Structures are given as C-alpha cells and as structure tokens.
Amino acid sequence: MINLFLFSLLSISSAQPLPRLLTPLNKDPITSLYTILLNSIDPYVIDIAAPFSWRRCPSAPHPTVACFTAECTQAQYLPSPCPLPPISSTTPCKCMVSPRNPITQSCACAQLTYTNITDRGAHIFLKHIFLSCAPNPLFESLPKGAVGLASLSLAPLSLQNQFSDRLPQLSRTFAMCLPSASSRNGAVYFGNASDHSLLSYTPLLTNPKTADYAVGIKGLSVGKHSVIAMSPFEGIRLSTVVPYTTLAADVYARFVERFEEGMMGVPKMKSVPPFTTCYKDSAVGFSRVPRIDLEFDGGKNWTIFGANSMRRVGGDTTCLAFLDGGEKAALKIVIGAFQMEDNLLVFDVDRSRFGFSSSLLSEGMSCSNFNFTK
Ligand SMILES: *[C@@H]1O[C@H](CO)[C@@H](O)[C@H](O)[C@H]1NC(C)=O
Ligand SMILES: *[C@@H]1O[C@H](CO)[C@@H](O)[C@H](O)[C@H]1NC(C)=O
Ligand SMILES: *[C@@H]1O[C@H](CO)[C@@H](O)[C@H](O)[C@H]1NC(C)=O
C-alpha cells in the first residue's frame, strides 16, 4: 500500500499526464439505480445530491472521527431531513452522523469513519476518504450487492471533492455517462475531461441549503412549441435517484398537451403506471417523437429525443417517460436519470459549470463506447 502511494506521487511529480480516475458505471436491472465500482470491486450507488457517502461497516473495529473536527462539521453542515444524531457520550467524543437512503428516505444514526480508495490501473491511492457507516436497514431498495452509496454532490465530503483534496492535481470535476441498459457499461470519470466538441456549458446555480446540482433554463419546449418560460435563476435540479424527469402538475399538464399534439395520429394505448401517456410502440418510430428542448441562455439547448423520452413497457406499448410531480412539487422541473442516459454530462465544480452533450446516440456513440480521454 505504502509503495503504491509513493509511486503515485512520483509518477505525478515527474510531469506525467494529470491523474484521472475512470470508474465503470452499471445500471442495476431490478432497481434501475446506477452503481460505480470503487477499489475495482465495490459497487456504490451514485447519488449526485447526497451530503456524504456511506457504506456497510465491517464487523471488525473501524476508525472513528472525533467530534468537532472539520470533517465532522462538514458532514453535518447542511440542513437535513434526518433527525440530528445524539451527541455520543463516549470519551473522546466520536462523530455521529445521519446517513439517509434517498429511495426510501429512511435515516440512520451512524459513526463517521474513513477508508482508503485505490485504483491500481491508474496508480492512484487515496487515503482517508471520509464516509459514514451504514446499518443494514439503510440498504433497503438498493441493488443487491451494493456496499454503500457514493456522494458526487457539491458538498465538501463528496467523492470528487475529497479526491481533489488528497490529490490536488485532480480537479474537482467529473464526467458521467449513464448507460441505458444493464448489459452495457457507462462510466464516471474523475478529473478534467478533455473539452469535447459535443459539450455545451451552462453555469451551476448554488443554494446554501442543498448540495445538489441546479442549472437555469429560459424555457422548456416540445416540438418547438413552448411549454413554460422560466427565469434562468429559478433553477431546475438534476437527480440520479429520481428515475424519470418530474414536472410540477401545471407544467406537466401543458407538457403532455403539447406532446399529444406532436404525436397526433399515433394510436394511443392504455396508460401503464407510473406513466399517463402511452402509444402503440410499433406505430411510433423514434423519429416520429417530438423533440423536447431545455433551452439555456445563449441559445444552447439540451435536446431530448425519443430514446430519452419514450420508455418501452412491453406489450407493444411505449410511454412518455416524464412524471407528474403533483400540485405540491417543490420544484417545477427535476431532471431524472432516464433523461440523462447516453448523454455525456460534466459536473465541473472548480469552474462552477455544467456540461451536456445531448444524446450520444445521435452521434453514433453511446456511454459504453465513449472515449473520455480523447
Ligand atoms: C489505509 O492505508 C494505510 C497505509 O497508507 C493503512 O495503514 C491503513 O490501515 C489503511 N486503512 C484502511 C481503513 O484500510
Ligand atoms: C482543467 O482544465 C482546464 C481547461 O480545460 C484548465 O484551465 C484547468 O487548469 C485544468 N485543471 C487541472 C487541475 O488540470
Ligand atoms: C432550441 O429549442 C428551441 C425550441 O424547440 C428552438 O426553437 C431552437 O431552434 C433551438 N435552438 C437550437 C440551436 O437548436
């Protein structure tokens, strides 16, 4: 271990290429959640909103963190829907945190700990990466075999921020490509991805109360017809644990209306929950599906084509893969994972910007054959 660490330092100081960490990303066929492999063998569910990572702690003793340390404060700096953990009564006081399952919303009370993360292929050894222990009930509804949850948020203890703290040459940036099938790999690529010609950028909006990623759009259109105009400062959020893009009730109603206009003439099918608007699959053909545009300032669009807007549900039925968030939805638009699949997305925290490619499929590529290093 120690040798490996020295080697990684040496290889960097001798003007080698900047360190980069490419981790394979999989889609779980049962839960449709996405996992990355850390240490080459440990699958962690990715969450781009979680304040910190967590994993099942070994039954053997694990390192603990003292109360009132920087990391303990960082793990708790955000308002959390979880109850505050009790102050531990042990001496010295050990840091307790509240990890949360983003699917079931259940909370736990657990010790903050740390671990080493290695990538032998890249000769990278990252020491003292802080995360929380997680008791078994926290794993409910997660993919079988997952050992924990990997935070890729804006929070100080997210993986990319800690990786960059340990290895300053690694920028606080990651590129992500979610695969559309569990039979194919995607990837999370930590560090500076090269500026790909397919990428457009927009500023990240920040909110002191949350660690997730928000961007501003001017409007949302279906088939070039406007559904809603927005202030670019209002913010729409991105989530890897929300399966489908979710729209507030009034936006959803207009959105479906526009979509149905665009699909005029295609036979409808009975709706299949959670979807409301379904069509005869064999009559659709993805080029028939109206394009959906998220319009950014400066004339840039994130365009969503059929592969990211229609979900086949079997029995010659395909459905509009957007959901109604209801009247009480806190946000007008939350971009869900299905709409991000086979799109190259760059979360560049250092430069506070978000990069998006629109579908790689229209360029004859996909997440499984995309070359991040070119
Ligand atoms: C992390 O690596 C160090 C060597 O640098 C080793 O002493 C320590 O036991 C490792 N910690 C864990 C939790 O594996
Ligand atoms: C990342 O790339 C940008 C340009 O694309 C450059 O300005 C920045 O210095 C790079 N950061 C690192 C840590 O290499
Ligand atoms: C962006 O989307 C809008 C609405 O669909 C469309 O009118 C406009 O032409 C698009 N711009 C680009 C550059 O594709």
TrEMBL record:
<dbReference type="InterPro" id="IPR032799">
    <property type="entry name" value="TAXi_C"/>
</dbReference>
<dbReference type="Pfam" id="PF14543">
    <property type="entry name" value="TAXi_N"/>
</dbReference>
<comment type="similarity">
    <text>Belongs to the peptidase A1 family.</text>
</comment>
<keyword id="KW-0732">Signal</keyword>
<dbReference type="InterPro" id="IPR033121">
    <property type="entry name" value="PEPTIDASE_A1"/>
</dbReference>
<dbReference type="GO" id="GO:0004190">
    <property type="term" value="F:aspartic-type endopeptidase activity"/>
</dbReference>
<feature type="signal peptide">
    <location>
        <begin position="1"/>
        <end position="15"/>
    </location>
</feature>
<dbReference type="InterPro" id="IPR001461">
    <property type="entry name" value="Aspartic_peptidase_A1"/>
</dbReference>
<dbReference type="Pfam" id="PF14541">
    <property type="entry name" value="TAXi_C"/>
</dbReference>
<dbReference type="GO" id="GO:0006508">
    <property type="term" value="P:proteolysis"/>
</dbReference>
<dbReference type="InterPro" id="IPR021109">
    <property type="entry name" value="Peptidase_aspartic_dom_sf"/>
</dbReference>
<protein>
    <recommendedName>
        <fullName>Peptidase A1 domain-containing protein</fullName>
    </recommendedName>
</protein>
<dbReference type="InterPro" id="IPR032861">
    <property type="entry name" value="TAXi_N"/>
</dbReference>
<feature type="domain" description="Peptidase A1">
    <location>
        <begin position="30"/>
        <end position="357"/>
    </location>
</feature>
